[in-house]
């Protein structure tokens, strides 16, 4: 498949995945803008529409005001508004759309993967493992979600599939100790990348924080700069709650980048715009489906156009 075909294929998948979010926005724009002049009421309705699509109050107000500029008192076609919205969203997302970069000077580059249960951490780890294995890198996985046997098994499956060693311990075992062992092994083997999975029991914040802090403390004994990255995986279906998760996890570990999954299962995909606007954290990848191919590097313009219901890329 050529690069253009591949890009086109991904754009259709992205557009299909974001359908629930985009049809609410796109349909709302048609309802608001058909045969009406752009006045204060229309701006307010647009703002409300964006808030209901989870773009956040402050961000929605700013976008609506920007779109209204130079268009006041004119009858504007819905398609033009969708295009203008895509441009506004793209301006917000562009600075945060940054691919994850492997630091080759680290042996290994240590990545701590955090996020609440079921957010898509394992899928993300599997995808990264596959990507770097295909590039000929040595990758070690640490099954740090020691609470659930299924989480460990799932990571082992990824290990087998991608040819990566998976360091595990018994169910209920110490995640920090396991991370230490995994880093020791990865260092000894001159691995390029160590991906550490973690448990995400946000319902017990104190335990979660204590556990993450312990992992951080312990791996720093072997490498004071580790972890070199901390990826927070967010589930888009949680909507505005994803903003709280960025804050909570940010207090424990220095979150360096985000991955947002399950954008296909929700009408709340706009939350990614609110998060980008508020935290300015790099967004490395997004997921619009259950297969590993549905997790792709984040492209701001494509996302903005798909979310706004602009038909082509
Ligand atoms: N629809 C959809 N499902 C996804 C996406 N990403 C992951 N999933 C599914 O969500 C479920 C949870 O994903 P995992 O990768 O196991 O998440 P986790 O954070 O490791 O979960 P725990 O191990 O339970 O903590 C799985 O059934 C995945 O197939 C996505 O982008 N879209």
UniProtKB/TrEMBL annotation:
- The segment(s) forming the Signal recognition particle SRP54 helical bundle domain are 14-93
Annotated Pfam families: SRP54, SRP54_N
* Enzyme Commission numbers on file: 3.6.5.4
Q: Name one GO cellular component term.
A: plasma membrane
Primary residence: membrane
Q: Which domain of life is it from?
A: Bacteria
Which parts of the sequence bind GTP?
Answer: 115-122, 197-201, 261-264
- Which locations, inside or outside the cell, does it occupy? Cell inner membrane; Cell membrane; Cytoplasm
Q: Does the keyword Signal apply?
A: no
Lipid bilayer topology = Peripheral membrane protein
Q: Which residues form the AAA+ ATPase domain?
A: 107-287
According to the UniProt entry, its GO molecular function terms are: GTP binding; GTPase activity; signal recognition particle binding
Family, similarity comment: Belongs to the GTP-binding SRP family. FtsY subfamily.
Q: Assembly and interactions? A: Part of the signal recognition particle protein translocation system, which is composed of SRP and FtsY. SRP is a ribonucleoprotein composed of Ffh and a 4.5S RNA molecule.
Primary role? Involved in targeting and insertion of nascent membrane proteins into the cytoplasmic membrane. Acts as a receptor for the complex formed by the signal recognition particle (SRP) and the ribosome-nascent chain (RNC). Interaction with SRP-RNC leads to the transfer of the RNC complex to the Sec translocase for insertion into the membrane, the hydrolysis of GTP by both Ffh and FtsY, and the dissociation of the SRP-FtsY complex into the individual components.
Tell me which PANTHER family the record gives: SIGNAL RECOGNITION PARTICLE RECEPTOR SUBUNIT ALPHA
Name of this protein: Signal recognition particle receptor FtsY
